[in-house]
């Protein structure tokens, strides 16, 4: 069976209960004393049960009964509508956007989404897009729009989308051709345009789909600054709540390598000149500058963090499937003790290496994502404006890395999980083949990973004259200074320090190339520096966690049932620092070497 | 369309005409003066035409009409039988095994196979397996077997397989359960057993399938040394040439993530006790030692080199598809000149980086494979026994690397080709999605890439007290010494020397771990040292080629139509040396760091 949900929540609970100061978050007035650290196990276990029992069946369904496009209609896999309704209605989905009642803290939403994706790669997008669309209405809509749309977007009656991409405008979203024309009502515009790649863009999972739609109001400025954002429902909502056709048409779905249950839809709006949308916020100013891109970007950051979480869930589920296979499969003899006879392959060093690079990297990724979501809670809720600013700046630095590093690693790590399965890994009888097919979109959507890298090295590195990023790195330096002399992990601390120094050297070298007029070098090394940022920050998080784990190991002793969890945390840290972190200074070596063949290469050489 | 054959043969011609001393090969008596360097363009162009016109249509056919298993029969895609016959009958396929008439030199067969795989990933296996099976009969069979089987295996009437794997015996082939029982005829045995994962294991592409089948003769020694090899035809061949049922049954096919046109078959033999096979070579000796594994291993080396070639063809076709897409797709502005307006994405640095890592790595791979096939021709044909030995020893060192490095890189490089396509890369409308699905088997079959790594570091490193591998590395040292002072590529030569020194340091450190009793460390670092070997040897080949290319650039001048090819060769070398080769000394850093968490890790930690 190509679907198999095998997951362990122990690391999630460790993060929430032993690593991050979750109690600070729970104490914020918004959360109203509803959550406490003591309830975390129950909370996670409860959602794990939902993931396993309610959501997981959608995974196989999505493969066996992929999304279809028939007679102009998008038909989702049969199990999806009821599960969509269930998750939304029970408060695990879109109702958890900011400022709604009894909202679940973001630090917990992070792990709900991890478990949801692990249980089913295709399904959660329908929830995620509804949340994103609702969040925009919540943040930028007036009370009328909120009342009209949010209750039904929260309870699972209606879905939502982010409608950005057009055939000629992908990474280049400023070049969209969709147009909006004023009507007698200043809040309402006629919409005309085509969109492609609209995730959850149509389907029978919901009775209405609310598109958050980018278009240019006639006469507005060209490029991204002239764009406005509209609420364009598939069915227009009349004052009495009745629905009528709004001239929004699905024209096809993509045939994708994975995520076959997730509808990726092409849309045509206003073919009969009858499509209307509500403008979100204000019309373009006297210079033709609209608010659309800024509005969309708020949601984009959340979408990017979410992609990191999706990457984690998909990859970790493939990893634990590989662990299960490796425990059962008997093949070969131990290299260190061949006379003992055949053994489970989990005992072979190369298999352990492949599993450990998965385990360590996934724990590093889970840690950095958790930290990012922790900062989101602080940034949105802390009473102290300095702390909000502090958290917000950390989010700025972490967001591109939290999107790109997990989604880049997904491809490599799932490749290793396939490899653990031997020839069976190539078959669709085991999970990793599907996980590989499913995961490849993560490095591409919500801004390709190079768009993230440009954001990191082009914007975040130099934000506020570089102080924001310097502070971000200073956290690591402070951590080293505070703990280096403790006698624990001496080699690991020295290695982290070496990597941090090397990272700064690479930054300095790149800035120097720029000063020398070699402008293309920033772009040339951007992706690699993004990976290095993930490796550096990941090692920092794992070492921080290992300090706790080491202490717990000593307290518990080797016979305690939980000992191996903490032992595993220590080994994750040692492996990651000793095998992954050195790549940071190798990237520095490569930056310092400064090969400029990428910049120099004329496109003609690629004929050969 | 998910199939698209976009290929350029200029680098192949460069290798054959300007880099390797192909004339030496062509002068061997076996080739009978039939080939000359002057005919290379024609030869390659001719086969390119066949690849494009005859073979390429099988690629789409394999996706649209995948192999089916119906009523106990395996049905290949509709176009396959005629193309199989065409290729075989016209002498491009199995008739090119050693010692047949008018055989095509191996150095050319290498590129025939590259083009064949590039044009169609699934189809060439049917040819390749027939060749492998025929080669075993040719080498170890008596005249009777040769006469009975070879003519029809050469002309496309019959196919062939290597039937090794069983449900409980994959990497561990010595543990097969298939049995052979003597009959009245000492050459003929009754066969009973089950096999899985038999590529081209059945199908309507041929009227008979000749299985080269591993089984243990009753009473022979346990493990791999007791195994014998049998010629087991699907239909028994009577003395008069008529065929009769031989109790060989296909019981199913695998549902794979890619290569949907390629039959991966489960077989059951002797269900009715009527299956017979011809023993190849001699029965087990008085100690129960059979000849089967040694015989099979001869073919295994060729199969491994062939997998490297398949990896190259599949990956390079994805690369050139990405180049074509990047040339056409307009998106974004140049980072170095935004005012020039929107541009084709091939002009963006990160896209160029992704294309250049493909181009440079693929040229390094093509070079090392070509060298390996060159050595094969020398080893089999040179009149001087010292030269044959020399070439044979180089093949020993290169074979695991030529299998593993291309197949590991395939996954990463095709991932980059997907990335070049942006969101479209995730759709099956473009080639890279299919190439990714197709390529993943290469790292798994014919010995997983860890089996290759064990062969490299466990056997080849220490063969003849380490002298064989030392000589292999000495080629690189000699090359550096001979050219370092030329004034060309000073930085690149210094970098190659640094990497070579680092490689030896890593070897020494690993041997030292072994001496200290840390036996698991060899296994822990085996895969990474294999990759480092590919990187080191690849850089050596590219630098050797770049010396020629630089000279040609100067001779031709920038206006010559061929200038950009040579310029591209120089940039490939510069990029690879400056961006890939430094990973060799990073691997050394990691080896010297010597983290032993892999060895230490108990399997219980992977629960978490």
Protein architecture, described:
2 copies of one chain form a homodimer. The first copy, chain A, is α+β, with helices and mostly antiparallel strands. Chain A has a domain at 460-601. Chain A has 19 helices and 14 strands. Chain A has helices at 10-19, 22-26, 40-55, 57-64, 80-89, 106-119, 124-140, 143-154, 292-328, 349-381, 385-420, 431-439, 449-460, 467-483, 490-515, 520-556, 563-580, 582-593, 597-600, and strands at residues 68-70, 73-75, 158-163, 179-182, 188-199, 208-217, 227-233, 235-237, 243-245, 248-253, 264-269, 276-279, 330-333, 342-344. In chain A, the strands form 4 sheets. A 5-stranded mixed beta barrel of chain A has the order 4-5-12-7-6. A two-stranded antiparallel sheet of chain A has the order 1-2. In chain A, strands 8-9 form a two-stranded antiparallel ribbon. In chain A, helix 6 runs antiparallel to helix 10 (349-381) and helix 14 (467-483) runs antiparallel to helix 15 (490-515). At the A-B interface, helix 9, strand 13, helix 10, helix 11 and helix 12 of A face helix 8, strand 13, helix 9, helix 10 and helix 11 of B.
What is the topology?
Two copies of one chain form a homodimer.
Chain A: H1 10-19, H2 22-26, H3 40-55, H4 57-64, E1 68-70, E2 73-75, H5 80-89, H6 106-119, H7 124-140, H8 143-154, E3 158-163, E4 179-182, E5 188-199, E6 208-217, E7 227-233, E8 235-237, E9 243-245, E10 248-253, E11 264-269, E12 276-279, H9 292-328, E13 330-333, E14 342-344, H10 349-381, H11 385-420, H12 431-439, H13 449-460, H14 467-483, H15 490-515, H16 520-556, H17 563-580, H18 582-593, H19 597-600
Parallel strand pairs in A: 3-6, 4-6
Antiparallel strand pairs in A: 1-2, 4-5, 5-11, 5-12, 6-7, 7-12, 8-9, 10-11, 13-14
Helix pairs in contact in A: 3-6, 6-9, 6-10, 7-8, 7-9, 9-10, 9-11, 9-12, 10-11, 10-16, 10-17, 11-12, 11-13, 11-16, 13-16, 14-15, 15-16, 15-18, 16-17, 16-18
């Amino acid at each position: 069976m190509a679907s198999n949900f095998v997951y362990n929540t122990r690391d999630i609970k460790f993060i929430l209960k032993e690593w991050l100061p979750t109690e600070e978050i729970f104490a914020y007035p918004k959360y109203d004393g509803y959550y406490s650290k003591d309830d975390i196990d129950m909370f996670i276990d409860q959602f794990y049960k939902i993931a396993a029992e309610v959501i997981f069946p959608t995974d196989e369904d999505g493969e066996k009964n992929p999304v279809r496009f028939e007679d102009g209609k998008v038909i989702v896999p049969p199990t999806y509508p009821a599960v969509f309704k269930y998750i939304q209605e029970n408060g695990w989905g879109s109702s958890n956007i900011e400022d709604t009642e009894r909202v679940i803290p973001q630090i917990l939403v992070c792990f709900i989404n991890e478990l949801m994706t692990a249980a089913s790669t295709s399904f959660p997008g329908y929830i995620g897009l509804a949340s994103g669309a609702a969040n925009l209405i919540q943040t930028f809509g007036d009370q009328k729009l909120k009342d009209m749309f949010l209750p039904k977007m929260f309870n699972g009656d209606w879905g939502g989308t982010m409608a950005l991409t057009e055939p000629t405008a992908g990474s280049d979203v400023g070049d969209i051709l969709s147009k909006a024309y004023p009507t007698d009502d200043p809040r309402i515009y006629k919409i005309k345009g085509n969109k492609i790649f609209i995730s959850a863009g149509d389907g029978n999972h919901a009775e209405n789909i609310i598109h958050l739609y980018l278009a240019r109001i006639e006469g507005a400025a060209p490029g991204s600054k002239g764009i406005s954002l509209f609420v364009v429902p598939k069915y227009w909502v009349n004052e009495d709540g009745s629905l009528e056709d709004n001239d929004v048409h699905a024209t096809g779905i993509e045939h994708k390598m994975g995520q076959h249950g997730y509808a990726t839809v092409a849309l045509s709006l206003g073919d009969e000149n009858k499509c209307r949308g509500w403008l979100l916020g204000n019309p373009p100013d006297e210079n033709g500058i609209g608010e659309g891109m800024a509005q969309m970007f708020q949601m984009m950051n959340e979408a990017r963090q979410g992609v990191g979480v999706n990457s984690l869930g998909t990859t970790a589920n493939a990893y634990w499937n590989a662990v299960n296979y490796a425990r059962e499969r008997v093949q070969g003899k131990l290299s260190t003790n061949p006379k003992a006879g055949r053994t489970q392959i989990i005992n072979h060093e190369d298999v352990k290496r492949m599993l450990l690079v998965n385990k360590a990297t996934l724990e590093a990724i889970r840690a950095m994502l958790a930290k990012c979501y922790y900062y989101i809670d602080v940034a949105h809720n802390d009473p102290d404006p300095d702390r909000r600013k502090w958290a917000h700046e950390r989010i700025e630095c972490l967001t591109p890395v939290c999107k790109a590093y997990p989604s880049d690693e997904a491809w490599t790590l799932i490749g290793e999980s396939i490899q653990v399965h031997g020839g069976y890994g190539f078959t669709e009888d085991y999970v990793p083949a599907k996980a590989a097919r499913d995961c490849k979109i993560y490095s591409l959507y919500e801004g390709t990973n190079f768009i993230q890298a440009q954001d990191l090295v082009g914007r975040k590195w130099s934000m506020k004259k570089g102080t924001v990023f310097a502070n971000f790195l200073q956290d690591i330096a402070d951590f080293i200074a505070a703990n280096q002399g403790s006698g624990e992990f001496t080699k690991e601390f020295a290695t982290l320090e070496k990597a941090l120094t090397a990272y700064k050297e690479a930054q300095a070298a790149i800035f120097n190339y720029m000063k020398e007029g070699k402008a293309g070098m920033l772009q040339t090394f951007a992706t690699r520096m993004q990976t290095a940022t993930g490796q550096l920050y990941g090692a920092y998080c794992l070492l921080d966690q290992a300090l706790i784990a080491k202490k717990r190991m000593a307290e518990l002793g080797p016979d305690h049932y939980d000992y191996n969890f903490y032992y595993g945390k220590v080994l994750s840290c040692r492996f990651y620092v000793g095998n992954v972190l050195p790549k940071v200074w190798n990237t520095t070596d490569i930056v310092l070497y400064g090969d400029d063949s990428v910049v120099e290469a004329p496109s003609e050489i690629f004929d050969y």
